[in-house]
Predict the structure.
Amino acid sequence: MHIKAIRPDFVAEISEIDLRLPLTDAQVAEIDKAMDHFAVVVFPAQELNDDQEFAFAQRLGPLEETRAVVDVHKQRLPHHQMNDISNLDVDGSILALDDRRRMFNLGNLLWHSDSSFKATPAKYSMLHARVIPPEDGNTEFADMRAAWDRLPEKTKKQIDSLVCDHSLIYSRAQLGFDSFTEQELINYTPVPQRLVRRHPGSDRKSIYLASHIGAVHGMPRPEAMVLIRDLIEHATAREYVYSHKWHQFDLVMWDNRCTMHRARPYDDKNYKRDMRRMTLTDSAPTLEQPA
Ligand code: OGA
Ligand code: MN
C-alpha cells in the first residue's frame, strides 16, 4: 500500500492495494491511520462491483442500517445499505426533470456531513464512481479541524458548548423543497448534535457543521442561522477546499466526523452519473461522546 499526501494534513491518495480482495488486519489499521490524519482518502482505479464495495465497507466497521431517501418504494439498488447517488431511475434511465427524487438529491449540492440528521450519525462514507459525466460533477471537501484551528479565540469560546438541531427537512427547505409526506416528516424529526466535537483519531477539535442545521439551542432562530452561515462560509473558504475531479472507478472515502462535502453541478439532463455509497455508522450520538 502506497500513501501519497495531496496536502500535508488533508487528503491522501492510496495506491498499490486491490480493494476487491479481503483486507488484512494490518491493511485495515493502515487505512484507519491514514483516515485519522488526512480525513479524506482517494483510491484510484478500483473496479468494484456492488458485492465487493459492500464487503470492503463492512470490513472497516459497522454499516448504517438505513438509507436517507424519499420514495422508498422506487429503489434501483438491491443492497438496502447502499446509497444510490445517481441521477437514474429504477430502469437505469435519467430521472425526469421534476422527479421528486431529483429535487431531493439536489440537496447534496449544499455543504453537509452525511447523516448528521440521524441520532447516531455517520463515521466514514465511501463513494464509488461507476459512471461519470464527461465534465463537471466534482465533489468538494473541507476540513473541519483546520476550520476550528483558525477560528478567532472569541468565536471558539462562543460556540464551544452549543448544540444544534439537524434535519433533512431543514437542508431541503433551503432549496424550496417542502413536499415531504407525513411519514417522511416523522422519519426526519430533528436531532440534537454538538456543534464542536473532538475527533478521536487525531484528538483535535472539529466544527460539526451541515446544511441540515435548522436551529441552535438557546438562540433565536435568525441569530442561529446567521451564525451557522458564517461558520460554513469560514470553513469552506476556497483556499482550504479540496475539489475532487472524478475518474471512473475512483473510490473516495471521507470521515464525516471532521469534514464537510458537497456535490458540484453537471449536465444531469443529458449525462448519467452513477455513484454508489456505503456508510459506516458512528459509535453514539455526539452528545454522548466526550467533548
Ligand atoms: C454523498 C454525496 C456528493 C457527490 O454521496 O454523500 O454527498 O458529488 N455525494 O455525489
Ligand atoms: Mn453526502
Q: What stands out?
A: The radius of gyration is 18 Å. The chain is about 25% helix and 25% strand. The chain has a mean pLDDT of 96. The longest helix spans residues 221-235.
